[in-house]
Protein backbone atom coordinates (compact mmCIF):
# COMPACT_ATOMS: atom_id res chain seq x y z
CA UNK A 1 0.00 0.00 0.00
CA UNK A 2 1.33 3.39 -0.93
CA UNK A 3 -0.05 6.90 -0.68
CA UNK A 4 1.86 9.81 -2.17
CA UNK A 5 0.75 13.37 -1.56
CA UNK A 6 1.76 16.33 -3.67
CA UNK A 7 0.79 19.90 -4.28
CA UNK A 8 2.04 21.49 -1.10
CA UNK A 9 3.51 24.92 -1.62
CA UNK A 10 4.26 28.35 -0.26
CA UNK A 11 1.13 30.44 -0.80
CA UNK A 12 0.04 33.91 0.16
CA UNK A 13 -2.71 34.64 2.67
CA UNK A 14 -6.03 34.38 0.84
CA UNK A 15 -4.64 32.13 -1.84
CA UNK A 16 -5.75 28.75 -3.10
CA UNK A 17 -4.14 25.36 -3.41
CA UNK A 18 -5.06 21.87 -4.52
CA UNK A 19 -3.43 18.87 -2.91
CA UNK A 20 -3.34 15.47 -4.60
CA UNK A 21 -2.88 11.97 -3.30
CA UNK A 22 -2.10 9.00 -5.52
CA UNK A 23 -2.91 5.62 -4.02
CA UNK A 24 -1.73 2.16 -5.00
CA UNK A 25 -1.56 -1.37 -3.69
CA UNK A 26 -5.18 -1.88 -2.69
CA UNK A 27 -8.70 -1.62 -4.06
CA UNK A 28 -9.17 2.12 -4.33
CA UNK A 29 -12.89 2.14 -5.01
CA UNK A 30 -13.88 0.55 -1.70
CA UNK A 31 -11.73 2.71 0.57
CA UNK A 32 -12.53 5.95 2.31
CA UNK A 33 -9.89 8.68 2.25
CA UNK A 34 -9.19 11.49 4.64
CA UNK A 35 -7.01 14.54 4.77
CA UNK A 36 -5.41 15.39 8.10
CA UNK A 37 -3.19 18.30 9.01
CA UNK A 38 -0.47 18.81 11.57
CA UNK A 39 0.29 22.44 12.27
CA UNK A 40 3.61 23.36 13.91
CA UNK A 41 3.49 22.51 17.58
CA UNK A 42 -0.07 21.19 17.41
CA UNK A 43 -1.75 17.83 17.31
CA UNK A 44 -3.05 16.17 14.20
CA UNK A 45 -6.30 17.69 13.01
CA UNK A 46 -8.73 15.81 10.79
CA UNK A 47 -9.97 18.01 7.96
CA UNK A 48 -12.14 16.00 5.61
CA UNK A 49 -13.21 12.53 4.49
CA UNK A 50 -14.58 11.21 1.24
CA UNK A 51 -16.27 7.84 1.45
CA UNK A 52 -16.47 5.08 -1.13
CA UNK A 53 -19.99 6.17 -2.06
CA UNK A 54 -18.88 9.75 -2.59
CA UNK A 55 -20.25 11.23 0.61
CA UNK A 56 -18.04 13.84 2.21
CA UNK A 57 -17.46 15.25 5.69
CA UNK A 58 -15.58 18.37 6.75
CA UNK A 59 -14.31 19.85 9.98
CA UNK A 60 -16.26 23.01 10.75
CA UNK A 61 -13.22 25.27 10.35
CA UNK A 62 -12.77 24.17 6.73
CA UNK A 63 -16.40 24.15 5.59
CA UNK A 64 -16.80 26.52 2.68
CA UNK A 65 -13.03 26.74 2.23
CA UNK A 66 -12.19 23.29 0.98
CA UNK A 67 -13.55 20.51 -1.19
CA UNK A 68 -12.48 16.89 -1.07
CA UNK A 69 -12.96 14.71 -4.10
CA UNK A 70 -11.85 11.43 -5.58
CA UNK A 71 -11.16 10.11 -9.05
CA UNK A 72 -11.62 6.36 -9.00
CA UNK A 73 -10.32 6.00 -12.55
CA UNK A 74 -7.01 7.60 -11.57
CA UNK A 75 -6.76 6.30 -7.98
CA UNK A 76 -6.42 9.87 -6.81
CA UNK A 77 -7.88 11.97 -4.03
CA UNK A 78 -7.82 15.76 -3.97
CA UNK A 79 -8.24 18.55 -1.48
CA UNK A 80 -9.01 21.92 -2.99
CA UNK A 81 -8.49 24.75 -0.54
CA UNK A 82 -9.27 28.43 -0.88
CA UNK A 83 -9.01 31.58 1.20
CA UNK A 84 -6.00 30.08 2.94
CA UNK A 85 -4.81 31.64 6.18
CA UNK A 86 -1.48 31.49 7.99
CA UNK A 87 -3.06 29.13 10.53
CA UNK A 88 -3.58 26.63 7.71
CA UNK A 89 0.17 26.13 7.61
CA UNK A 90 1.22 22.58 8.30
CA UNK A 91 1.94 19.16 6.89
CA UNK A 92 -1.06 17.67 5.14
CA UNK A 93 -1.49 13.92 5.13
CA UNK A 94 -3.64 11.66 3.02
CA UNK A 95 -5.02 8.57 4.75
CA UNK A 96 -6.67 5.50 3.31
CA UNK A 97 -9.16 4.19 5.86
CA UNK A 98 -10.38 0.68 6.41
CA UNK A 99 -7.94 -1.05 4.11
CA UNK A 100 -7.56 -4.52 5.55
CA UNK A 101 -8.98 -3.25 8.86
CA UNK A 102 -6.35 -0.56 9.26
CA UNK A 103 -5.46 2.90 8.04
CA UNK A 104 -2.53 3.83 5.83
CA UNK A 105 -0.83 7.22 5.74
CA UNK A 106 1.18 9.05 3.15
CA UNK A 107 4.40 10.89 3.92
CA UNK A 108 2.72 14.30 3.90
CA UNK A 109 3.09 17.49 1.91
CA UNK A 110 4.01 20.88 3.36
CA UNK A 111 1.68 23.84 3.02
CA UNK A 112 2.95 27.21 4.17
CA UNK A 113 0.69 30.26 4.12
CA UNK A 114 2.37 33.62 4.61
CA UNK A 115 0.79 36.97 5.36
> What is the mean pLDDT?
97
Which percent bin holds the helix content?
under 10%
- Helix-strand category: mainly beta
Following the backbone from N to C, one meets helices and strands in this order, namely EEEEEEEEEEE
Q: Give me the Rg, rounded.
A: 13 Å
Distance between the termini: 37 Å
- What proportion of the residues form beta strands (DSSP E)? over 45%
| Major sheet details | 7 strands, mixed
By DSSP (H or I, 4+ residues per run), the number of helices equals 0
- Can you tell me the overall shape? globular
**Which stretches of 5+ consecutive residues score pLDDT under 50?**
none
Task: Report the count of strand segments.
Answer: 11
Give an overview of the whole structure.
The protein has no helices and 11 strands. By secondary structure, it is mostly beta strands. The strands form 2 sheets. Strands 2, 4, 5, 6, 9, 10 and 11 form a 7-stranded mixed beta sheet that branches. The protein has a 4-stranded antiparallel beta sheet with strand order 1-3-8-7, with no helix packed on it. Strand 7 and strand 8 (76-81) form a beta hairpin. It starts with a strand and ends with a strand. The model has no long low-confidence stretch (mean pLDDT 97).
Break the fold down into its secondary structure elements and pairings.
Layout: E1 2-6, E2 10-12, E3 17-24, E4 32-38, E5 44-50, E6 56-58, E7 66-71, E8 76-81, E9 90-99, E10 102-105, E11 109-114
Parallel strand pairs: 2-11
Antiparallel strand pairs: 1-3, 3-8, 4-5, 4-9, 5-6, 7-8, 9-10, 9-11
Amino acid sequence: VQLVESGGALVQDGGSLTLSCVASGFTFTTAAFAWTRQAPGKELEWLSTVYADGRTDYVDSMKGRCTISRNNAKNQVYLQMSNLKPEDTGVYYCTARGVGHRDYWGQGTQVTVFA
